[in-house]
Every structure is written in C-alpha cells, then in structure tokens.
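Notebook entry, structure prediction.
Reason for the run: the old model in the group folder had no record of what sequence produced it. Starting over properly, with the input documented here first.
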Amino acid sequence: MAHRSVSTSVASARAATVTLSSLALAAGLLVSYATRVEPGRVQVVRITLPLPHLPSNLDGLTLAQISDIHAGRVMNAQRIRRFVAATNLLHPDIAVVTGDMFQYRPESAQMCARELANLRAPLGVYAIMGNHERRLPPEYGEQPFRRAGLTVLCNAAHEVRANGASLWLVGMDDLMRRHGDLTLALQGVPEDTCKILLVHEPDLADDAARFPIDLQLSGHTHGGQVRLPLIGPLILPILGRKYPMGLYRVGDMWVYTNRGLGMANPPVRFNCPPEITLLTLTCSGGKHDTA
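New structure, fully documented this time:
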C-alpha cells in the first residue's frame, strides 16, 4: 500500500509540473504576442459616413485618420515610417492626426515630426494637440510639427476647398490640460456648413453635439490596449470612458474614436490592434457602412 501511495504522489507531482510548465509556456507566448506581434499588425478600418451638410461636389471625399503614435523608445522612426507608408497607400484626400504624437521627450517629438512630414494628401495634412504635446512648452511639443509642414489647429478652424465647394476642419486644443475652447475654435465658421471636429479626448462629444457639427474624430483611449473577451477594456483614461472605440451617434453628430498606433505603458496590445481609419464621406442620407 505504501509503494502504491508513493507512486501516486510522484505521478501527481509530475502532472502538476507538466501543468505549470504548460501554463508558463502559454503565458510566455501570450506576452510575446502582446508585446511583439499585435502592436505591429496595423488594421485599416474603412467607414462610409453620410454627412447631411456635405456639398454634393465633395461626395466621396476620403479622409485618413491616425492617432496616438507615442513616438519614443518603443515607437521608433522605422515603425512610424511604416505606418506613414501604409496611410499613403490609401491615397486619402485629407489626412488628420488626432494628438499624442510622441511620448515624453523633445527629441521624440522632432523624430515624429520628421516622419509625419512624409504624409501625403492633396487637400492637406492636419494635426491637433493631445495631452502629451501639452506636457512640454509649445516650442518643443507643437512647433516641430508646424515646421514639418503639418497644419496644426489649436482652437482654430480651416476651410478645405475642392471642386468649387468646401468643408471646415475644426481643431480643438487639449482638454485634459484645460487648453480646449470649442467656442473659440468655431469662431468665424458659418453655421450651415459641413464641419468635422478634431479633438483628442472623445468624451467631449456630449457637449460638441450641442453645436452644428457633423462628425467628431478623436483618439486618446488606444481602445484600452488590452481588451478581454466578455469583459472589454481593462483600463480607459479620463475623458475616454464613454466613447472608447469605434463609431457612435450622439444626437445628430457622428463620433469616431480611433484606437491609435502606439501604446502607453505598459507597451502591450491584446485583442486591440493599432488602427488607421479611412473615412469616405457622402452627402447621401443612406446607412453608414464599415469594413
């Protein structure tokens, strides 16, 4: 009986060791995937949206949105260059960058600006400030992008003209650092025109929808970076918890929150790949399409 008991104990110990080894292997593979594989697998999300104030001459206009690059040690120049090339392959009419272009350091801002200078869109490349840009004085967090040729909108609007018609891009400054002023941004913009609001933090939407705005484009959330089945995102930032990812309708206004290209700490992505959004704008009143 004693011999059988010892044999059973040894077998149980071996089974436990195999189980622990399997769990350790699975955990290692999961960590490797979340840190090395998924962060580089950019997904192009294509959306067709009807905007009621879009002039018929601009029907079919395309806009590419990228966001939250977080240039730095993890998001190096080579990776940004690849994302810029992927955006250019979509041949958008307009390109926008909705904030948090670098992580912390002035040299990261300069590096990111150099790479974003290669974005190509015939009707212009536009950017707004996020909370990371506003951690530094404007000469370090904002001016590198202006010098790179991007049109930076800080509580300001820009009329985009094409085919004898126009729409307005309205850019808000960062909300978390209390720089944003939507009333100032809309100053001088005709009320009955098509307006696309660029604002880093998506949860402004409840306030923005009170204004005659057709579409809000935001980032900030990274989609949560880690999204578990049946649970969703584990952590979402302030001002990014109500509209964390994807397309929403708030009153008469569309809201789209881009998952971003980079990562905050910890630098992992799981079930939430980086994203480039390509929006095709129509003046029809039909249903929207996503792909």
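Summary: The helical segments are 2-37, 77-88, 106-116, 138-141, 143-147, 182-185, 205-208.
The old model has been moved to the deprecated folder.
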